[in-house]
Amino acid sequence: MTVLGTDVWPAAPIKTERLVLRESEARDRAVVIELNASPEVGTYLGGPRPRAELERTVPEVPGRRPGFFVVELDGAAIGTVLLDPQTPETPVHRREAGETHLGYLFLPDAWGHGYAGEACAAALDWFSGVLPGESVVLYTQTANVRSMRLAAKLGFTELERFEAYGAEQWFGVWSSAR
Question: Which end of the chain is more exposed for a tag (fewer CB within 10 A), N or C?
Answer without folding.
Answer: C
